[in-house]
Write a structure and sequence with these properties.
single chain, 396 residues, alpha/beta, Archaeosine Trna-guanine Transglycosylase, Chain: A, domain 4, Transcription Regulator spoIIAA, Rossmann fold, 3 domains, seven-stranded mixed sheet, 11 helices, binds S-adenosyl-L-homocysteine
């Protein structure tokens, strides 16, 4: 380990979570900082009894250190390359890395892959990085280079899209752009369906990769049904429903840009198919008049709670949204309902959906319980990483 690292000494008793491999040090747990420190620095964390606990990136904020190693190592190029290689090897094992039908997947899932603050999504040759910590941002070129060495010709470009996800951006002034080469290719395949992805201007890294397996499940439920895809973004769920034999599919999103992309993607996959229609309107408004119109409704809203303070309001939101669907869906209908809010636990989300069902007075049965897919792994010592939860419900 480098001897010139700044050390962070924790208060007595505050070492327990790190000893259980939880990768965060909260600012309130710090007793003393020995040496000079700047945002993004690699620091060594010690207990009050001078025991080494881990190495991590320092940041100003409530999470002061994101630990990336619980061992004393030199966090050089080879260290990061080996971490990235492990993440890639796991995607290879999952059958995602060389797959004729699917060439979009998450390559690095932050804490879930032992790299807190770093997201990398793979889009048919292009890796889109989204950094949530300054420490990761500062080594982005090194990470891109290591990834190129690992993936070879399977990697044609690396795009950095961290301008909106980095904290304290005023000090660093990050600008989105290519770190390695650049690429005009933006068409990907997911289970054989084509999607144009706009990672430069689209939401998140361009596509909601985390819904892949749940979209496929929609395909199985869609036959002969009239489908409403609420919060459709670029239409992911809609096309799986169409391929599954839906009778009609209505896609709703308040973003006109998203609706344009959804229309483009329909033309790619089902040119001239009259079953699909799009509506650029607010979801709650649209759901005021859908009594007995649909028998498959998908509710995949944006995170209603971005932090703990908004949790009660978010839960009310989920309750109301789901109540509207239960009240109006045809008998024998199926509802796919999701929450991607990290601060809303599986239990709290269930309670909100159950309350929504009770308001409607309908008989509702849970058919499937859904989560994020395997390329979005959850570090077992960091349960906060489990953010996507969903239920498939049958409404009698
Ligand atoms: N289901 C999508 C991802 C949904 S992301 C997929 O599989 O790709 C959430 C979407 O909700 C965004 O596209 C956002 O534009 C849309 N949205 C946010 N608030 C909305 C509202 N009040 N009414 C309708 N759409 C909304």
């Amino acid at each position: 380990m480098k001897s010139n690292l700044t050390s962070i000494i924790l208060k007595s008793g505050k070492d327990q979570s790190l000893k259980r491999f939880h990768p965060w040090v909260f600012s309130g747990a710090i007793k003393k900082i020995k040496g000079s420190i700047a945002e993004g620095d690699v620091v060594a964390v010690y207990s009050n009894k001078d025991e080494f606990l881990g190495l991590g990136h320092y940041q100003v904020g409530s999470i002061a250190v994101r630990v990336f190693s619980f061992e004393q190592v030199d966090p050089d190029f080879d260290f990061w390359k080996s971490k990235l290689a492990k993440a890639f090897a796991m995607r290879e094992q999952l059958g995602l890395a060389a797959n004729a039908g699917t060439n979009v997947y998450r390559l690095v899932n932050a804490e879930g892959d032992g790299m807190p603050g770093l997201i990398i999504d793979y889009y048919n040759g292009v890796a889109v990085m989204q950094m949530h910590s300054i420490g990761m941002y500062l080594i982005r070129e090194k990470l891109a280079e290591a990834l190129k060495e690992i993936m070879g010709t399977a990697l044609t470009a690396v795009y950095d899209k961290s301008a909106k996800t980095l904290p304290f951006k005023a000090d660093i002034k990050p600008v989105n752009g290519y770190v390695l080469a650049n690429s005009p290719v933006n068409q990907v395949l997911e289970y054989g369906l084509k999607f144009n992805v706009d990672w430069e201007n689209g939401q998140k890294t361009g596509f909601f990769i985390d819904q892949r397996e749940n979209r496929r499940l929609v395909e199985h439920y869609a036959k002969g049904r009239d489908v409403l895809n609420m919060f459709c973004y670029t239409g992911g769920f809609s096309f799986f429903a169409m391929r599954g034999g839906a009778n009609l599919v209505h896609s709703v999103d308040s973003s006109a840009r998203a609706i344009d992309l959804a229309n483009e993607n329909v033309a790619l996959n089902f040119p001239g198919d009259k079953r699909h229609q799009t509506f650029a309107v607010d979801a709650f408004e649209y759901m005021q008049g859908i009594k007995n119109k649909y028998d498959l409704i998908i509710l995949d809203p944006p995170a209603f709670a971005k932090h703990r303070g908004t949790l009660p309001r978010a839960l009310q939101g989920y309750k109301k949204l789901n109540a509207r669907a239960f009240e109006q869906i045809r008998p024998g209908g199926v509802v796919f309902t999701f929450s991607c809010s990290q601060v809303v636990s599986k239990e709290k989300f269930r309670e909100a959906v159950f309350s929504g069902a009770a308001i409607s007075g309908r008989t509702v049965k849970v058919l499937n319980q859904l989560a994020q897919p395997a390329d979005h792994p959850v570090n077992i010592y960091h349960p906060e990483g489990e953010y996507l939860k969903g239920l498939v419900l049958y409404v009698e």
